[in-house]
């Protein structure tokens, strides 16, 4: 387990820790908004992928699951815009 004390210093420390992500997800589930974290994790995975065919496939899954009007786990438009801007700029949204 990474140092939980560091999670209070920086959200990035929390989100880069497997244990931190799991605990944060439990909290978000209790608030009925864990789809936002799942969306963020999907976008982060997308950002790290270099295979063009896989990128197209992942993009379709992300849109269908989180962004489209019929999304099964729709996220707020604020979250979408925030992460899209970070994705386009290819920088961490936490810097």
TrEMBL record:
InterPro entries, alphabetically?
A: RGS, RGS_sf, RGS_subdom1/3, RGS_subdomain_2
Q: Which Pfam families match?
A: RGS (PF00615)
Chain ranges of the RGS domain: 10-71
Q: Which SMART domains match?
A: RGS (SM00315)
Give the matching Gene3D superfamilies. 1.10.196.10, Regulator of G-protein Signalling 4, domain 2
The record's annotation in PANTHER family points to: DOUBLE HIT, ISOFORM B, REGULATOR OF G PROTEIN SIGNALING
Protein name in UniProt: RGS domain-containing protein
This chain's source organism reads Octopus bimaculoides
């Amino acid at each position: 387990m990474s140092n939980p004390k560091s999670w209070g210093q920086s959200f990035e420390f929390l989100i880069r820790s497997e244990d931190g992500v799991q605990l944060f997800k439990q909290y978000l589930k209790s608030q009925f908004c864990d789809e936002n974290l799942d969306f963020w994790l999907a976008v982060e995975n997308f950002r790290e992928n270099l295979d063009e065919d896989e990128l197209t496939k992942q993009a379709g899954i992300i849109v269908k699951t989180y962004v489209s009007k019929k999304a099964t786990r729709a996220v707020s438009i604020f979250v979408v815009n925030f992460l899209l801007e970070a994705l386009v700029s290819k920088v961490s949204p936490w810097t």
